[in-house]
Design brief:
By secondary structure, the chain is mostly beta strands. It has helices at residues 3-10, 35-51; strands spanning 63-67, 75-79, 82-88, 92-100, 113-121, 129-139, 142-152, 158-161, 169-177, 180-187, 195-200, 208-214, 217-218, 221-222, 230-240, 243-246, 251-258, 264-268, 278-282. The protein has one domain (3-12, 32-282): Peptidase G1 (Jelly Rolls, Sandwich). The chain contains two helices and 19 strands.
């Protein structure tokens, strides 16, 4: 996920400093707000500000593995920040999936860890990416979950919904018409997190489509992967040119997230018999 959420490994960029967390004495602007409520709001604002410093979507260059016997066009590769599937080709115009938001396990740790789940066009073999989905952030001992979108390198990650919770029913899609991209996430459980935005971007390659669990990157590289147990991408559809299908309808790569030393961090399953669903299992940070 090196799009801005991937810029991560592409190039170094100035990182915005996280806002300070104010818990000390001082006049409270809203006298009706309790100290706990004020502190909670400030903590969330700080956590959201940290998200703005991340890069999601652009992946580290994969290492080719071996072709899987009996599965046309499927090659196993590894990445230091992506796990899931990518279709490659040209003129991709739509990608979508549904999932149940995973349950994070931050365990009171003060170590920052993150996990982003998204669908997108581009990013696997290009320097741009159009993507949206959900994000888990374990930050300063608290757990936060969001819906978001991004067109890299045009903007930072755009946090939309902040009341996302484990178990929410999510549908995410990216649809292209010419140079216009409609990015849409629907949270059927907590509808305030839902959004649809249309953005114009003329420099996209439209050369891949992805269904990814990612460890976002910060100024120092890939962040620790938040523990999420399992993420399942279902009803995964895609359109390339005039042909619509599922993941296995096109040339697809299975991507395993490994550490730089080769230890598995997140392992994708094989595609189901319909070629439109798989799971990613968290192994380690």
């Amino acid at each position: 996920m090196e799009r801005r959420l991937r810029r991560i490994l592409l190039s170094a960029f100035a990182v915005l400093p996280a806002f300070g967390l104010f818990i000390g004495a001082g006049a409270v602007a809203n006298a009706s707000a309790s100290p706990a409520a004020t502190s909670g709001a400030q903590a969330r604002a700080t956590a959201v500000a940290y998200i703005k410093t991340l890069k999601v979507g652009f992946h580290s260059h994969p290492t080719a593995g071996h072709a899987r016997t009996g599965v046309s066009g499927l090659t196993q590769v590894t990445s230091t920040n992506w796990s899931g599937y990518a279709d490659t080709g040209s003129a991709f115009s739509a990608v979508s999936a549904t999932w149940t938001e995973p349950t994070p396990s931050c365990s009171g740790s003060r170590t920052t860890s993150l996990a982003a789940f998204w669908v997108g066009i581009d990013g696997y073999s290009s320097s741009s990416v159009e993507q949206d989905g959900t994000l888990i952030e374990c930050y300063r001992g608290s757990t936060y979950q969001y819906t978001w979108w991004e067109i890299y390198p045009e903007n930072d990650i755009q946090v939309v919904g902040e009341s996302l919770a484990a178990g929410d029913a999510i549908t995410a899609s990216v649809t292209r018409s010419g140079t216009s991209y409609t990015l849409k996430v629907t949270d059927s459980t907590h509808t305030a997190n839902s959004f649809s935005t249309t953005q114009t971007y003329a420099s996209a390659a439209n050369s891949s489509a992805e269904w990814i669990a990612e460890a976002p990157s910060g100024s120092s590289g890939v962040e620790p992967l938040a523990k999420f147990s399992t993420w399942t991408s279902a009803n995964s559809d895609v359109t390339e040119g005039s042909t619509s299908g599922v993941i296995s309808s096109f040339t697809d790569d299975e991507i395993t997230m490994d550490t730089s030393s080769g230890a598995t961090e997140a392992q994708p399953s094989a595609l189901n018999s319909s070629g439109n669903s798989f799971s990613v299992t968290w192994v380690r940070s």
